[in-house]
Amino acid sequence: MRALRVHENGEPGEVLRLEDVETPAPGPGQVLVRVRAAAVNFPDALLCRGMYQAKPPLPFTPGVELCGEVAELGEGVSGVEPGTRVIGSADLPTGAFADYALMSADTVYPAPASLTDDEAASLFIGYQTGWFALHRRAHLREGETVLVHAAAGGVGSAAVQLAKAAGARVVGVVGGPRKAETATALGADVVVDRRSEDFVAVVKEYTGGRGADVVFDPVGGDAYERSTKCIAFEGRIVVIGFASGSIPTPGLNHALIKNYSILGLHWGLYRQRAPETIPEAHDRLTELADRGLVKPLVSERIGPAELAAGVQRLADGDTVGRLVFTP
């Protein structure tokens, strides 16, 4: 089979190589799937760079999120049949940037019939992250205002749709006119181009001075620091990640004075600490997809020859919506 593999850590455009390798065999508790589509995520770029929390042995194939067709079951696997269309996470080092990938049987979920392969491949990590951030951590309520940073990106685009589906008002922050168009298409009520506008002033004006009830922040750095200037009384800032490369140091005295909460979200920990919550969220997301309330915005489909450059563009912040690999 064909696979994009990393033999040494570095920039994705330089280290991802298309190779012919043997098709892996599923071990106990694993499922072999034929990859139908794989969404490109920021962790894929971090994996290439050797900067992700998981460090698979070299050489490895990235690709953490996919839609596939079950091809073979490992020992002890039941409850899923060959030929079933599924979504979920791939088991590294045999990731989804290949013709076939391995998945742990307990991370395999039915693909929503209402979504195409490209869309279904994009529903798992980003939308699960958005669901847990908004509903489990921030306890979002109808009518509240949500400030979403990187609103045209992978997790940001999911957060925009999920917040709107919950009856919230959404202010999306993006970088550039093309991304502003994407955030608008996703349903954001107000879109702020951070390159030419001050989102703090926009949020205050939009809310009549109250501020944002919830801040969804996968960026960190200055985005976090400035969000504290427009957070509402008893607001909640959910820290998702640090795509800016800068990890802020919160002023806890400021949180005390303004009565707001700083919440962390590491979605992967739920798979270890509360695994029953993942299928529950999947059921809710499938229901929303079937009702047409969420739909991953796939902006570009790329093949094996273009994948390395595509992952590099995502790492450089030069993509909008979801970038999806199709073998």
UniProtKB/TrEMBL annotation:
Single GO MF descriptor: zinc ion binding
Domain Enoyl reductase (ER): start-end pairs: 13-325
EC number: 1.6.5.5
Enzyme kind, highest EC tier: oxidoreductase
Domain of life: Bacteria
Alphabetized PROSITE patterns for the sequence: QOR_ZETA_CRYSTAL (PS01162)
Keywords: Oxidoreductase
InterPro entries: ADH-like_C, ADH-like_N, ER, GroES-like_sf, NAD(P)-bd_dom_sf, Quin_OxRdtase/zeta-crystal_CS, Zn-ADH-like_protein
Name of protein: Quinone oxidoreductase 1
Pfam family, one: ADH_zinc_N
